[in-house]
Amino acid sequence: MTKEVVANIQYGGDYAEKLREAAESGECVFCQDTFQRDSKFFLMGYQGWIARKSEFPTKDVLGGIPDHHILIVPERHVGSYEDLANQDHVRVSTIVAYLRSRLGIRGGGLVHRLGHPLYSGATVLHVHFHFVVPRIIEIDGEPRAVFVNMPIG
Ligand SMILES: [Zn+2]
User: Fold this and answer.
1) Non-local CB neighbours of 29 within 8 Å, separated by 6+ positions
2) 3-class SS at 5?
3) How far is 108 from 119, CA to CA, in rounded Å?
4) Is 152 within a domain?
5) Which of 28, 34, 53, 65 has the fewest CB atoms lying closer than 10 Å?
6) Is residue 5 part of a domain?
7) How far, in Å, is the centroid of ligand 1 from the Cα of 66?
């Protein structure tokens, strides 16, 4: 089972440093209890999955932070999308529906990068979904979602 972390040089700052440390230690960041249960970020657990706020939320095209950037992660190490059971997809859907209701989320995106990191841009090779909700600004008197930069590749 691969528990690899890719120190993707396209990331900078604190996140790049954390990736470098994880790559050196050989530990899967997402398997660690300190990641899964960190009370600063933890939102919920459900049938072997957790949802937590991203410690390093993506930016939108105006340099701001989306309203929500939530990671949905299996507690057990799953190295590949194809290794998820059908029931896992039901669990992810249930978590998304619950969070939408609880947080009043009207829309957003659910992103999963799959395959080799060269193509996906993934850094942590432990299956996870990004649930990203853009912030809304007013342009010409109309509410508009600010595009989110979610790198793939
Ligand atoms: Zn893991």
Assistant:
1) 5, 18, 22, 35, 124, 126
2) strand
3) 23
4) no
5) 34
6) no
7) 26
What does the alpha-carbon distance between residue 132 and residue 69 come to, in Å, rounded to a whole number? 4
CA of 107 to the centre of ligand 1 (A): 29
Distances (CA, A) of 95 to 34, 50, 91, 104, 116: 21, 8, 6, 13, 26
140 found inside a domain: yes
Can you list the alpha helix ranges (DSSP code H) found in 63-110? 86-103
In this structure, are residues 64 and 146 in contact, taking their beta carbons and an 8 Å threshold?
yes
Which tens digits make up the pLDDT trace of 20-76?
777 777 788 899 998 999 999 999 999 999 999 999 999 999 999 999 999 999 999
Q: What is the whole-number distance in angstroms between the Cα of residue 76 and the centre of ligand 1?
A: 7
First to last CA, the chain: 23
CB 69 within 8 A of CB 41: no
* Number of structural domains found in the chain: 1
Q: List, for residues 72-128, the tens digit of each pLDDT value.
A: 999 999 999 999 999 999 999 999 999 999 999 999 999 999 988 888 888 888 999
Query: Residue 29 Cα, ligand 1 centroid: separation in angstroms?
Result: 6
